[in-house]
Every structure is written in structure tokens, then in C-alpha cells.
Write a structure and sequence with these properties.
7-stranded mixed β-sheet, 2 domains, Fructose-1,6-Bisphosphatase, Chain A, domain 1, single chain, 5-stranded mixed β-sheet
């Protein structure tokens, strides 16, 4: 890949440091201290520790930047134009159940635009990175979205709301429309990795409602640099709405 900027190097270093700690905790998953934050939304001691590791690394290197993380209060930086957006453990429920599909996600926002993104899957030793204008990369290999044009041969990814979420009818309705027209829909339980997989051509598209900014910040940068189109299902900015749809340019509109 092209030489990463100092900011991207900082992000990669922070993600890898947190990832190493999470892998150790994953090996002791049965002994994790677990608290219930809300229905279907578990927060582990490992999650909080990982966020602290990332925050310490990023804020030590760039103390004037703002901060938005899943497990801590937001911080308005002395530099109001730049902000870290972090999910220290996307796929927490998978993690808790011993399923090896979860990741660390770090995005950098500048003047309202995500200009760099890192998504690390430490179990599979895969790191997806992108910077504005520099393309998207998986480890040292350039990645692009799939070039498929026939929806009948495509695989899509989504998230299915838990419990009695008000978004559940919409999600089921979406799948009822899509499933007869495609080769399959996957629900792997880690939205950031879903976005990275679209960028790498593993999935042909992704959609989900009710996501948070930290779920998608890194992913939208990687998607954009891999040639994907994306937008909000409900209109407006995707980070604010959390209603994201993404696909290759060939089928985005029909999708």
C-alpha cells in the first residue's frame, strides 16, 4: 500500500494494541465480567479496556482532536474540525458467545467528512485501511467492490434487530423484498466488518437501520475508497441517521 500518513499510522498502532488485548480476553471469554447496558446490547470489561487503550494512544498523539466512542462520553477537542470516532469492539455479542467474528473500528473525521478508517479483525489477522484519495487496502493488497451486475448471483449482508425493536418489521420487510431476487443474505453480527467485506468484494451490498456513528465511520471511508456507493435509507447524513445502504455502482440504485 502507499505510505500511510502519520494519522493513519497512529490509528493502525492503536487498533493493533487494542486488538492484542481483546484476543487475550477472547481466550478467557467465559471469565469475562459482563454488564447489561440494554436489551441485546452487552458491554464487557474487555470492551471498556480496549476503548481506554485506543483513547490513550490516540489522544496522546493528537491531544487537540475531539473524541466519540461507544463506551465513554464524547469530548469536544480544541481543534473543532477533527474527531476520532471509535468502536473498540464491534460484534460484542459474538465475542461473548465465543464466535470469532468481531473487530476494532477507528475513523477520523475532518470538517464533517471521514478522511481515514481502520477496521481490524485480529482473529483473522486482517486489517482494512483507507485514506481519502489513497484507495482501500486489506493488509497489503488493494481492494475494490465487486463488479457483479446480476442481482440473482449476489450476496448481501444486513443486521437483524433484536427483541421487539421497532426496526424489526422494516428489516423483515426488506428481506422479504430482497431474498427472492438474490443468492442470499447474511447476518454476521458486526456491521463494521460487513462494510469492510463490501469494500473487498466479499459481499455485493449491505443495509441496516439504527446504526451508530461509531459502527460505520471507518467503514464508509473504506467503502468510498474501494469504489462503493452509499447513502442513508432515510435521507441526510449517514452518520447522523444511522440508516445505511451500500453497494457497487452497478446495482446501487436497483438495490
Amino acid at each position: 500500500m502507499v505510505a500511510p500518513s502519520p494519522n493513519l499510522n497512529i490509528m493502525i498502532k492503536a487498533a493493533r494494541k487494542a486488538g492484542r488485548k481483546l484476543v487475550r480476553d477472547f481466550g478467557e471469554v467465559e471469565n469475562l465480567q459482563v454488564s447489561l447496558k440494554g436489551p441485546g446490547d452487552f458491554v464487557t470489561a474487555a470492551d471498556r479496556k480496549a476503548e481506554q487503550v485506543i483513547r490513550d494512544e490516540l489522544m496522546a498523539a493528537r491531544p487537540n482532536y475531539g473524541w466519540l466512542g461507544e463506551e465513554s462520553e464524547p469530548v469536544e477537542g480544541k481543534d473543532p474540525t477533527r474527531r476520532w470516532i471509535v468502536d473498540p469492539l464491534d460484534g460484542t455479542t459474538n465475542f461473548l458467545h465465543g464466535l470469532p467474528h468481531w473487530c476494532v473500528s477507528i475513523g477520523l473525521e475532518h470538517k464533517g467528512e471521514i478522511v481515514a478508517g481502520v477496521i481490524l479483525d485480529p482473529i483473522k489477522d486482517e486489517i482494512f485501511v483507507a485514506e481519502k484519495g489513497q484507495g482501500a487496502w486489506l493488509n497489503d493488497r488493494r481492494i475494490r467492490v465487486s463488479g457483479r451486475r446480476d442481482m440473482a448471483g449476489m450476496i448481501f449482508a444486513t443486521g437483524v434487530p433484536w427483541g421487539d425493536s421497532e426496526d424489526l418489521p422494516n428489516a423483515l420487510g426488506d428481506m422479504a423484498k430482497l431474498l427472492p431476487r438474490c443468492a442470499g443474505v447474511r447476518r454476521f453480527g458486526a456491521a463494521a466488518l460487513d462494510l469492510a467485506y463490501v469494500a473487498a468484494g466479499r459481499y455485493d451490498g449491505f443495509w441496516e437501520r439504527g446504526l451508530k456513528a461509531w459502527d460505520i465511520a471507518a467503514g464508509v471511508c473504506i467503502l468510498r475508497e474501494a469504489g462503493a456507493l452509499y447513502g442513508s435509507l432515510s435521507g441526510g447524513d449517514v452518520l447522523e441517521s444511522g440508516d445505511l445502504i451500500a453497494a457497487n455502482g452497478e446495482i446501487y440504485e436497483s438495490f
